[in-house]
Amino acid sequence: MKIEGSWREYLRKWRGTTAGGPPRVHSDEVFWSWLGAVLGIGLLAWLGERYFAPHDLHLMIGSFGASAVLLYGAPRSPLAQPRNLLGGHFISALVGVFCWQMFHDYPVLAQALAVATAIALMHLTRTLHPPGGATALIATLGSAEIQRLGFWYVLMPATLGPLILLFVALVVNNLPRTRRYPEVWF
């Protein structure tokens, strides 16, 4: 890896560009994003409470909120496509559980390795999904109940949850004429 340029050039990059802020979003987009998130997260929460919590299982983790932003707020983004959603959470959960099991005596190391390795593997498998980083991190710093799940965490919640969010995204994002989801499956 070669690093080029002076410190001045390097620091100049920190200023950003002169392109303005993001464009305004039409109120229809806001509505469909809101509806998708209400239905997707609501369905996960309801199923979790109704069917999983009585068995000390989890269906909801914090990274699903970020997935909802991508799926319902930016459905055309490459990071929101099914391959990225499902693969990103699955790989990241595997990595997070593995790092926790190998390095739980060194939680800082487990957390850093989990996120960094999840990013690297998502890049290599073309499944980059930013919430996956949080899924890996949750496996290493989550509650004792999450950590007690071990590799079950990969299936539930880290795979089943995104499948449910995907189903809602398919239904809601294809209702209006102005939206289409997915752009590509694999």
What does this protein structure show overall?
The chain has 186 residues and is mainly alpha-helical. It has one domain (26-173). Helix content is 64%, strand content 0%. It is built from nine helices and no strands. The protein starts with 6 loop residues before the first helix and ends in a 13-residue tail after the last helix.
Brief write-up:
The protein has 186 residues and is mainly α. Helices cover 64% and strands 0% of the residues.
Question: Which stretches are low in confidence, meaning pLDDT under 50 for 5 or more residues running?
Answer: none
Largest sheet: none
Structural class: mainly alpha
The share of residues in extended strands comes to under 5%
Shape: flat
Number of helices: 9
Distance between the termini: 31 Å
Mean of pLDDT: 94
Helix content: 55-70%
Tag the structure with descriptive keywords.
186 residues, mainly alpha
How is the topology of this model organized?
Blueprint: H1 7-13, H2 27-52, H3 63-73, H4 82-103, H5 107-124, H6 131-141, H7 144-149, H8 152-155, H9 160-173
